[in-house]
Amino acid sequence: MNFNQFTNRLNRLFIWISGGALVLMMLLGFGNVLSRTFWQPIKGTFEIIGFLGALCTAMALGYTQIRKNHVGVDIITSKYSKRWHQITEILSYMITAPFFVVIAWQVAAWGTTIMQSGETSETLQLRYYPVIYVVAAGFLFLALMLFFDLYKAFKAVFKNSKEPEGDTNES
Fold it and tell me: Which residue, 45, 37, 39, is CA-closest to 123?
């Protein structure tokens, strides 16, 4: 199994977790509204929806990066030549990939602190450190995708540097 196949399989797993969390949030929210209307609200709905929202978001980060669907403002960079666009893309990946590694590390460290302290959620008294670890995994997967994009960006620059001078400035 090559790297691309590995990341695609891992991404598929994460996206299924994200989608499942989204469906559960919807069902729980709907069930809570119905329950509140006819009887009483479901205890801990706000907590559980918060945990599911964190899972849903974190598990979708890598997929969103693969599809290049993150919000980007390219007012300035859209005017760049192809070469300058590639250089700014490389610089961006060189900054963001390690940044998200640090975020994953710090979120995991926070999860360890929560686990060791025995802290639980307020209403349902759930130990929620596993959710924190899954969120850290989502950030780590995003960082992995950013490093892979950095590799591809370097590869594209070196491939283009072998082409004649006139072909590098298309914009």
Answer: 45
Q: Rounded to the nearest 10 degrees, how much is the dihedral formed by the CA atoms of 70, 75, 81, 82? A: 10
SS3 category, 162: coil
* pTM across the whole model: 0.84
> Whole-angstrom Cα distance, residue 109 to residue 94?
23
**Which residues, at least 6 apart from 87, have a Cβ–Cβ distance to it below 8 Å?**
157
Break the chain into its structural domains and give their ranges: 3-164
Residues belonging to the chain: 171
Neighbouring residues of 34: CB distance < 8 A, sequence distance ≥ 6: none
Closest of 149, 142, 145, 67 to residue 104, by C-alpha:
142
Contact of 58 with 104, CB cutoff 8 Å:
no
In the chain, the amino acid numbered 43 is K
Question: What distance in Å separates the CA atoms of residue 158 and residue 147, rounded to the nearest whole number?
Answer: 17
Express each pLDDT in 11-47 by its tens digit: 999 999 999 999 999 999 999 999 988 888 889 999 9
Number of Cβ atoms within 10 Å of the Cβ of 143: 23
